[in-house]
Design goal:
The chain is of the alpha/beta class and about 250 residues long. The protein contains eight helices and eight strands; from the N terminus they run ααβαβαββαβααββαβ. About 35% of the residues lie in helices and about 20% in strands. The mean pLDDT is about 95.
Length: about 250
């Protein structure tokens, strides 16, 4: 019953996360002509984007250093019966990601890099483990959004945000020197969605799912009136490609 309820509400009550779950998979690749493709979900959270990449026919590995790895195995591998050969979850630190000894066709990294001091180090590792022509799907908070500007930072990297996020300019500063070729960033989440999401999050943080659900049911429909091209989006998604014929960086 618990798993049934969890799946009914999946991927949760956060309206911004639900939007990322709707939009980002449209940019993921999928196998052609029977090929085998391997995708890494780096900092997989509740596994929503790992699952989306799996649904496209990819073999997927989701990694995290949190106990969500265990919960994801329970939901996807046990409850849904998805073979671990197709969708697996592992306890791996992104600073040690090259130790996996795998190369990937795509890497998904969503709402993670703002938690990591060594963002350049990790992105260089991503570049190294991507196959030539492979893509990094990176989504992070928009540093220009007022919510992130005022969000308390965690300078000791204990789980909070170590920086407010990124802008189009700081994405370029981070990724282009490594060798990535970037698409134009896409903004996700406008003012109406954010206005609705704030009370849902507050209520859920205080009273848990049972209190958060009625607030979600009341406010979530209003998020459909949000703009698709917000002036100051909540998050920024960018697709960064490792050029064909490129070797590892140093």
């Amino acid at each position: 019953m618990k798993m049934q309820l969890k799946w009914l509400l999946f991927p949760g009550l956060n309206l911004n996360a639900r939007l990322r779950n709707q939009v980002m998979p449209g940019y993921f690749g999928q196998p052609q002509n029977g090929e085998e493709r391997l995708v890494l979900d780096a900092g997989c959270g509740n596994g929503m984007l790992s699952h989306q990449a799996y649904l496209k026919g990819n073999r997927v590995i989701g990694v995290s250093i949190k106990d969500e790895v265990i919960r994801n195995r329970e939901l996807f591998n046990q409850y849904h019966g998805i073979p671990e050969e197709r969708l697996s979850f592992r306890d791996v630190n992104l600073y040690d990601i090259e130790s996996m000894g795998e190369t990937f066709d795509e890497i998904i990294c969503c709402e993670v890099m703002e938690h990591i001091k060594g963002d350049e180090q990790v992105c260089r590792s991503f570049f190294n483990i991507l196959k030539p022509g492979g893509a990094l799907h990176l989504c992070c908070p928009n540093a220009d959004h007022r919510f992130h500007k005022n969000y308390p930072l965690d300078p000791d990297e204990t789980g909070g945000h170590v920086r407010p996020g990124y802008t189009a300019a700081t994405y370029r500063e981070l990724l282009q020197p490594i060798g990535f070729e970037l698409s134009e960033p896409i903004g996700l989440g406008g003012p109406i969605r954010h206005l609705c999401n704030e009370p849902i999050t507050r209520v859920q943080n205080v009273g848990g799912l049972l209190l958060g659900l009625p607030t979600f049911a009341l406010l979530a429909p209003w998020a459909t009136f949000d703009t698709d091209t917000p002036a100051v989006p909540f998050s920024l998604y960018v697709r960064a490609v490792k050029p064909e014929g490129t070797n590892a960086t140093t």
